[in-house]
């Protein structure tokens, strides 16, 4: 998540500064913003160009096991085809980060409803991006063996989390991780090769 998005999220929580947001937005997206000076205009421009996400928390009650809440954002014709959402589908929908905002959720659910057979939505009905999504959040101290991960997987996710937090700055990430930059680079290449297989 970029700094502009983080500041915007803080503003929505009542903790951020619009002036700081505008400064960050102008530094990070000067060609998109130009001379625009108002908070609302900058938000409109950046969300329109998919550079800023409104988030879905304010639009949809993403509580599992409440089928109605998942369909509240849909058109009447999709609501007419409402199906039961299995617990595994609900969990995938909750875990997914929704970079495309409400529009992506709507499209995913419309597709799932259209492709599903029977009265329940299954994981197979979801788009690949959601079906294959791997959350960077993981439970380390679990009593359930199926939730435990290998040390290599924990290391990979932590390294990727640190990189994401420092906006991809490998020098800063290597210092935080206590790794030589070359070692970090080799690990990232190995992760890319593993993910592409």
What's the mean pLDDT score? 75
Which regions are unreliable across 5 or more consecutive residues at pLDDT < 50? 56-68
The biggest sheet, with number of strands, parallel, antiparallel or mixed sense and barrel status, is:
2 strands, parallel
In the CATH hierarchy, the architecture of the largest domain is: Orthogonal Bundle
Overall number of domains:
3
What is the count of helical runs?
A: 12
Order of helices and strands: HHHHHHEHHEHHHH
- Quaternary status of these chains? single chain
Task: Summarize the helices and strands and which ones pair or pack.
Elements: H1 3-12, H2 18-28, H3 30-33, H4 39-48, H5 67-71, H6 76-79, E1 84-85, H7 87-95, H8 101-115, E2 120-121, H9 128-131, H10 151-165, H11 170-177, H12 181-196
Parallel strand pairs: 1-2
Helix pairs in contact: 1-2
Summary, kept brief:
This protein is mainly alpha-helical.
Description of the molecule:
The chain is an all-alpha fold. The protein folds into 3 domains: 3-48, no CATH class; 67-131, Helicase, Ruva Protein, domain 3 (Orthogonal Bundle), CATH 1.10.8; 145-196, Homeodomain-like (Arc Repressor Mutant, subunit A, Orthogonal Bundle), CATH 1.10.10. Helices cover 56% and strands 2% of the residues. The protein has helices at 3-12, 18-28, 30-33, 39-48, 67-71, 76-79, 87-95, 101-115, 128-131, 151-165, 170-177, 181-196; strands at 84-85, 120-121. The longest helix is centred in the last third of the chain and has 16 residues, at 181-196. The radius of gyration is 20 Å and the shape is flat. Residues 56-68 have low confidence and may be disordered.
């Amino acid at each position: 998540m970029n700094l502009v998005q983080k500041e915007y999220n803080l503003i929505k929580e009542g903790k951020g500064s619009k002036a700081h947001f505008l400064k960050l937005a102008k530094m990070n997206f000067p060609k998109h913003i130009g001379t625009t000076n108002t908070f609302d205009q900058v938000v409109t421009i950046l969300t329109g160009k998919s550079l800023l996400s409104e988030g879905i928390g304010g639009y949809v009650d993403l509580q599992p096991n409440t089928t109605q809440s998942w369909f509240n954002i849909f058109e009447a014709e999709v609501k007419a085809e409402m199906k039961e959402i299995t617990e595994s589908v609900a969990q995938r929908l909750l875990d997914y980060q929704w970079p495309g905002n409400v529009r992506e959720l709507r499209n995913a659910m419309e597709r799932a409803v259209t492709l599903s057979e029977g009265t329940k939505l299954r994981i197979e009905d979801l788009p690949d991006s959601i079906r294959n999504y791997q959350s960077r959040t993981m439970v380390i101290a679990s009593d359930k063996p199926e939730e435990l991960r290998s040390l290599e997987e924990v290391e990979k996710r932590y390294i990727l989390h640190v990189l994401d937090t420092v906006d991809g700055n490998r020098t800063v990430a290597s210092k935080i991780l206590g790794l030589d930059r070359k070692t970090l680079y080799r690990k990232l290449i190995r992760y890319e090769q593993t993910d592409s297989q």
